[in-house]
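Reviewer 2 asked us to include a model.

Predict the structure of this chain.
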Amino acid sequence: MIREFPLRFSARPRPSALASVGVSLALLAAAPSAEAAASADLATTVTAPATIYFTGNITYRITVTNDGPSDANTVVMSDNWWSGWTSFLGVSGSEPAGVSCTAPAVGSVGTVTCTTPSLAPGASMAIALTIHVRAVFHNQLVVDSATASSQTPDPNLANNTVTVATRGL
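Predicted model (structure tokens):
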């Protein structure tokens, strides 16, 4: 036995259905997307002389660049060395304005830390750090390492730390 059921179609949607569709669309439009998450790729470079004769000063030029795409907030650059035959002389030429640095006492060893509140995409923070080398022998290396970090997530941590070596002659 086959039963037939009458089907009714209406060209008019129910008002309650329209209201729930409108609310759902409004919620979707207001929801943040995963693509909108902030990230800032910091890249660190250090320049230094390739060689030093027995004793003297080495100035490292340390640059942290924000390769974007977002602003990097609370950017910190740390430079650390612990050699018994070097000592800290000073930090100079920090840019942009607003960069603040803490450093060990002149004549000692330790960590230099420089901070800036933010770096826009394409902007850089740069400092010059000078150490005194008391004595270095032929082929001995004076090694320096600098690292950048930020409160903004960094998609490429591989370019945040760089190490350079100056060879004694």
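The mean pLDDT is 81. The longest strand covers residues 56-69. We have added this to the supplementary material.
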